[in-house]
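Forwarding the complex inputs:
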Amino acid sequence: MKLTLSSSPHQRTPRDTGQVMRLVIYAMLPGLALQWYFFGWGVIVQAILAVLAAIVTEAAVLTLRGKNIRHAVSDFSAVLTALLLAVSLPPLLPWWMTVIGAVFAIAIVKQVYGGLGYNMFNPAMVAYVMLLISFPAAMTMWMPPQTLAASTVNLGDTLSVIFTGFSNAGYDVTQLRTDWDGVTMATPLDAVKTGLTQGLTYSETLNMPVFSGAFAASLGAGWAWVSLAYAAGGLALLRLRVINWHIPVSMLASVVVVSLLIHLINQDHYASPLFHLFNGSVMLGAFFIATDPVSASTTNKGRLIFGGLIGFWVVIVRTFGGYPDAVAFAVIIMNMAVPLIDYYTRPRTYGHHSHVRSGKGKRP
Amino acid sequence: MNDYQDLTWQGLWKNNPALVQLLGLCPLLAVTATLINGLGLGLATTLVLIGSNITVSAVRHWVRNEIRIPVFVMIIAAFVTVIQLLMNAFTYQLYLALGIFIPLIVTNCAIIGRAEAFASKNAMLPAAYDGLVMGLGFTLVLMLLGGIREILGAGTLLSGADRLFGSIAHDWKFTLFATEQPFLLAILPPGAFLGMGLLIAAKNTIDANLAKRRQPAQQQVTRARVTAES
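Prediction (whole assembly, two chains):
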């Protein structure tokens, strides 16, 4: 009889990495579909571009490193990274910016640090921030939701704008996102931020056209539905036990608490918790980005701290920072804090005292 | 001349102040947004290195060990002041562009490192030559990093050459590609860190490849000797 000897952990997980990644991708699909419905074909084109670029980069870097390409590419982690990046990008971003972002995410943020499982930062978010600080103008050119837009952009025009910079009729992105009456429609976060700097009160900014047509006053028309779809996908992931509840719950709770406190201080200046929850990428971030098993904290107590501080930074940076949305910045800041959090929240080994307090009562 | 060949090899490649010793990173990362800025600071650093190495080597027998560091710093500071005044007089635009990083050459560890590690132990001529090649090695890295960042960030090369070379260099700048949306990351500080990291990685890769190529050849030689003896 042959006895197999192996080191711990002895309990095998029922799913391998590829299955987990595929489940997360499936859970993103409702949100992706709604983004396509509200923001047009650009979302799909960006997703395809990013996924292709990510897979090619992954294969190229793995070849350089002399690793098994098929094994690493078939775990779908590069596809998930590319999708998370693509849904964060403005739908009509020039194609080469998307490609640069995907290549940067995979080659620099993931593979240079040692590949899947070794990357310190969330690749999609670092690539997004890289694009945001490199191309600030292009990265903030969001189209108005198609339900509110005067004219919609069809597939042919979308491809033409993404690859050549101009639609078939010769309009560029700035002209396309400007309504026929010359009014550009910003994202809800942008609208409120700009309105507040122009001296409007918070409730006055909510009268802007971007807030019409949603089911609550402070929600942007398309964005709230997209957020709900991502939240639904995230709840499915929780149900399937792909992610733990700690990070999403603590992050959302912290967003609510911090924004409520700030909102109560001055209701004219600071947005309400509902506004913070359902605009921008908080839902996507809470369920899909902050829960990345590689770059998040690994202990349960640590996950609560990690998620809670991400929520804190989201509200603080959104309210007082220069950029309208802050999920990417918050995730990156907290990625840096993960080693420290993990150090102080190491679980107690059975039969031992907690290592942090071990100075007080060491067992003889 | 074998010593001088070795010094050249050490300064330009094997012990390059920027890529291997990782000294003087502060100016290296801060001013290399364009090739000309890199070249200007590199030349200034090289001149200071040569001057300080010669002087430190000349006074090495009279400086007591306990006070050598203050003496070295004062010598370096004197040369930096000379260079700063010269740049202020002859290349005023470049002087403005480099700003605080010219006086900060005093604190460049590459310079005091060479004074401590080489010049204070060697004769004047080798010390001067060491200063020259170390400075050139530093300058080459500054130019390479500046060139990469300038191409990526602005699509140009040699912009502002007239700041360093005077009015004859007005049309030296050439544009590789024109873009309305420059890759700002390359010009911002993170681009310097990323570019530097990639340069170091490239250097290490080249070294590893060289070592791999040399390895089998050496093995064959030893084996041949063994069979000849037996």
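The longest strand of chain B covers residues 156-157.
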